Amino acid sequence: MSNIQSPPSFGxxxxxxxxxxxxxxxxxxxxxxxxxFFSIVAGxxxxxxxxxxxxxxxxxxxxxxxxxLNGKVxxxxxxxxxxxxxxxxxxxxxxxxxxxxxxxxxxxxxxxKVALYSWLGAAVAVGSSSRQWQLAVxxxxxxxxxxxxxxxxxxxxxxxxxxAAFFVSSGSMVFMPPGNAPFTAQxxxxxxxxAPDLDGLKAIPPLASRLRFLxxxxxxxxxxxxxxxxxSVLAFVA
Length: 238
Hints:
By secondary structure, the chain is mainly α.
């Protein structure tokens, strides 16, 4: 009689059932928030973008980009006090997009940039989970109403800053080869932060990582000044 086991109680069965369903519920929540995020972005592009009048600085970067495409040189023929990358990006958009999509395409690109840096910022803050998509939805809706839908240097600055933070955080693991730890893993362990479980992961040497990111930074600076000097030389030759 001692080997006879009593049947499980209703309470324990109910708790075990909830525990089994919890991972599935988490995946469902993530999928729903992901669908909501893309639906909101698409809704803004389809509903908000074609309507409205921009009474602030609309056309500022578009006008500068158009002048660059017509042969003028920044800082030489055009008075401009900011870095040139937003103007060059806008000129590239004007070159790629059809002419009749100059304004509408500008607004679509704006919403795309805001959506991208909202998603990247959420990945840096909370990692890959349903909370990431919740935060991305909130970030997009708030950010989309901070500026008129147009090309703007502040939006480009936020995008590239968040992109840099993303690639040096654990959020970039989705783009890393299998077996590598995030760049910040060593700093999390040293600083006492609750670092992710790194068992079985091959940590990247801190010094090598720093040298790699330093090399990327120096390459970007050299590219910027090289393009600027080349543009000035071509202007004087012409």
